[in-house]
Write a structure and sequence with these properties.
Blueprint (H helix, E strand, L loop, with lengths): L1 E6 L5 E4 L6 E3 L26 H10 L3 E4 L23 E3 L4 E3 L5 H10 L3 E5 L7 H12 L5 H8 L10 E4 L14 H18 L4 E4 L12 H10 L5 E8 L6 H5 L1 H23 L6 E9 L2 H4 L20 H16 L4 E7 L8 E4 L2 E4 L3 H10 L3 E3 L2 E3 L2 E4 L3 E4 L1 E7 L4 E9 L6 E6 L6 E10 L18 E2 L3 E4 L2 E6 L3 E9 L4 E2 L5 E2 L1
Parallel strand pairs: 1-21, 3-4, 3-12, 4-7, 7-8, 8-9, 9-10, 10-11, 11-12
Antiparallel strand pairs: 1-16, 2-15, 5-6, 13-14, 15-19, 17-18, 19-20, 20-26, 21-25, 22-23, 22-26, 24-25, 27-28
Helix pairs in contact: 3-4, 3-5, 5-6, 6-8, 8-10, 10-11
The structure holds alpha-L-arabinofuranose.
C-alpha cells in the first residue's frame, strides 16, 4: 500500500480562516430565484413566498455571505425596476441569459430572504450598461439611514432600517467579450476606481471587490490584473478570481488534479497584487475574493438548451456526481490552504443553477457536492495550519504532477481542537496515513467521516437523494498522539480531534463522571 504522511504543528500557521470563504452565489437566472429560493405558489412557501425547504437546506450549509444578483445578469440590471410595489415593476429582457426578468423578486426580497437564511449580502453593481452614478444611488438606497431621495424611497417601500450591505462587487467579469458593456483593462480600471471612490465617500464602511480575469484562460490574464491594480489600488480591497473545472474528456485522474491549477492560479494572482503593492510602495495588501468557483460542465456536455425569453427556464442545471464532490472537497482544501490571502469565496451557485441544492415542485434535495461544502463550512473555521503533505504523486495530462493526497488541518477553538480535511485521489489504491499529533495528546478522535462510492458517476436525484452521502469510517486510530491508519481510495475525509473532558472531582476527592 502507498504511504503518506502529514506534518502539522499548531504554531506553524497560514492564518485565520475568514468565514466568508464559505460564501455562495444567487444570480437572477434560470431557476435560482424563481422556483428555487422563491415560489409563492408552492406548498413549501412561507408568507413571503420563500421556499422553507430550501431555506432549511441553505441554513444547513451555514453560508456566511451570498453574492447577488449576478453574474452576467448584473451587467444589464436596472435595480430601480426591482423595488417598490410589485404590480408596478416592469418586466425586462435579460440579454445575458436570454430570458425575461419580471422583477417580481428583487433587491428587497433578497434582503429579507438573506435574513431568513442567516447570511450577509455581497451586492454587485452594474458597470456594464451603467456606471458610478447608478451604483452610488443603489448604495444610497441600501445603506443611507434616511432623509435623502433614495433612502426615503427605501423607507417608502417598507424598509425603514438601512440594509447595511458591507461588501460590493464592482461589476462582473468585465474582461469577457460576452459581458454586456465589457471593457478593456484601462477602461474598467478607471470606471471601477471612480465608482468605488464615490461609493466609499457615501459609506466609508463598505469594502469593494474589483474584477480580476473571468478565468485563467483569458488572453489578457495577468496584464488585466496588473492594469486594474495599477489604476484602482487605493479604492479596491479585494481582487476577484473566477474558475470552473470540467471533466469533458472523461479522464478522472486529470479532473481531480484540477486543484494543482487552482493553486497556481491563486499564487499567481497573489504575486501580481504584491508586485503592484511593491511598485506603488503601499502598506495596504489586496486580498482575494474567489467569488465564482465550482465544477461546471454537465449541462454543457448534455447540450442543455434552455427555452428562450421565458421567466424561469431550466438553465445550467448540472447534476453532480461523486467525483465532482471529491473535486469540490479538494477545491475547498485549496482555498483553506490560502486562507492568508483568500478572504471571500463563493461556491457558484447555491440553488438549481450549478448548485448544491436542487428543487422541483415536490421537494428539494442535496446534490453530491452539498456534503463536502457543508462539512467544511461547519468544521473548517479556525486557523489554517501549514500542512505538509508527503505523498506519492501521479502525472496528469493537463496539470503535471499531482499529489494523491490533498489535505489541510484547521486548528479550532474550544473543544473542537483540530479538523483535518483529506482527499485520497487515487482511483485504485488506499493510502496508509500517519501524522504525528503529539501536541494534541489530550484529545480523542471524535469523528472520522468519509464520502466515497464504488461508482464515480453516482448521482443524488429526487427519487434517489441519498446515493452519495457521508458515513462514519473506522479505518484510523489515534494513539499516544499518533494518527494512523488508512484513507480509502477515491475518498474525501473529515478527521476531527476533540479535547477530552478534564477529570473533575468533588470536594471529598471522588471523581465526577
Ligand atoms: O455562474 C454562472 C456565470 O458564470 C456567471 O453569470 C458569470 O459571472 C460566469 O461566467
Amino acid at each position: 500500500m502507498k504511504k503518506a504522511e502529514l506534518i502539522v504543528d499548531k504554531d506553524f500557521q497560514v492564518g485565520q480562516v475568514d468565514e466568508r470563504i464559505f460564501g455562495s452565489f444567487i444570480e437572477q437566472m434560470g431557476r435560482a430565484v424563481y422556483n428555487g429560493i422563491y415560489q409563492p405558489e408552492s406548498p413549501f412557501a412561507d408568507e413571503e413566498g420563500f421556499r422553507r425547504d430550501v431555506l432549511d437546506l441553505v441554513r444547513g450549509l451555514r453560508v456566511p455571505v451570498v453574492r447577488y444578483p449576478g453574474g452576467n445578469f448584473v451587467s444589464g440590471f436596472r435595480w430601480e425596476d426591482s423595488v417598490g410595489e410589485k404590480s408596478l415593476r416592469p418586466a425586462r429582457t435579460d440579454l445575458a441569459w436570454k430570458r425575461i426578468e419580471t422583477n417580481e423578486f428583487g433587491l428587497n426580497e433578497f434582503v429579507s430572504w438573506a435574513r431568513k437564511a442567516d447570511t450577509e449580502i455581497m451586492m454587485s453593481v452594474n458597470l456594464g450598461t451603467r456606471g458610478p452614478e447608478d451604483a452610488k444611488n443603489l448604495l444610497e438606497y441600501c445603506n443611507f439611514p434616511g432623509g435623502t431621495y433614495y433612502s426615503d424611497l427605501r423607507k417608502k417601500h417598507g424598509y425603514p432600517r438601512s440594509h447595511d450591505i458591507k461588501l460590493w462587487c464592482m461589476g462582473n467579469e468585465m474582461d469577457g467579450p460576452w459581458q454586456m458593456g465589457h471593457k478593456t483593462a484601462q477602461e474598467y480600471g478607471r470606471v471601477m476606481q471612480e465608482t468605488a471612490r464615490l461609493m466609499k465617500q457615501l459609506d466609508p464602511s463598505i469594502e469593494t471587490v474589483a474584477c480580476g480575469s473571468s478565468n485563467l484562460a483569458m488572453k489578457t490574464f495577468g496584464s488585466w490584473e496588473e492594469t486594474v491594480l495599477d489604476i484602482g489600488y487605493d479604492e479596491m480591497d479585494y481582487l476577484s478570481l473566477h474558475q470552473y473545472y470540467e471533466n469533458m474528456s472523461g479522464d478522472t485522474a486529470d479532473f481531480l488534479a484540477s486543484t494543482v491549477g487552482m493553486d497556481e492560479f491563486i499564487s499567481s494572482v497573489v504575486s501580481i497584487c504584491d508586485c503592484v503593492k511593491a511598485k506603488k510602495r503601499r502598506k495596504k495588501k489586496i486580498y482575494l475574493s474567489f467569488d465564482e468557483w465550482n465544477v461546471w460542465y454537465h449541462s454543457k456536455m448534455n447540450k442543455q438548451k434552455p427555452e428562450k425569453w421565458v421567466k424561469a427556464p431550466h438553465q445550467v442545471e448540472d447534476i453532480y456526481n461523486f467525483e465532482d464532490a471529491l473535486l469540490v472537497g479538494s477545491m475547498l482544501i485549496t482555498l483553506l490552504r490560502h486562507a492568508d490571502r483568500i478572504k471571500i469565496a463563493c461556491l457558484a451557485q447555491l440553488v438549481n443553477v450549478i448548485a448544491p441544492i436542487m428543487t422541483s415542485d415536490s421537494g428539494a434535495w442535496r446534490q453530491t457536492i452539498y456534503y463536502p461544502y457543508q462539512l467544511t463550512s461547519r468544521y473548517g473555521r479556525g486557523t489554517a495550519l501549514q500542512t505538509i503533505v508527503k505523498a506519492p504523486v501521479y502525472e496528469s495530462k493537463t496539470y503535471g504532477y499531482a499529489s494523491y493526497l490533498d489535505a489541510v488541518a484547521i486548528l479550532g477553538e474550544g473543544k473542537e481542537r483540530l479538523s483535518i480535511f483529506a482527499v485520497n485521489k487515487s482511483l485504485d489504491e488506499d493510502l496508509e496515513l500517519s501524522c504525528d499529533l503529539r501536541q494534541f495528546v489530550n484529545c480523542r478522535l471524535a469523528e472520522h467521516l468519509i464520502l466515497t462510492n464504488d461508482d464515480m458517476k453516482a448521482e443524488n436525484t429526487e427519487s434517489e437523494p441519498d446515493k452519495v452521502v457521508p458515513g462514519k469510517a473506522d479505518t484510523l486510530k489515534f494513539e499516544s498522539g499518533i494518527l494512523s491508519g488508512v484513507l480509502r481510495k477515491h475518498s474525501w475525509n473529515l478527521i476531527r480531534l476533540e479535547e477530552t473532558e478534564p477529570e473533575r472531582y468533588q470536594s471529598d476527592g471522588r471523581q465526577i463522571h
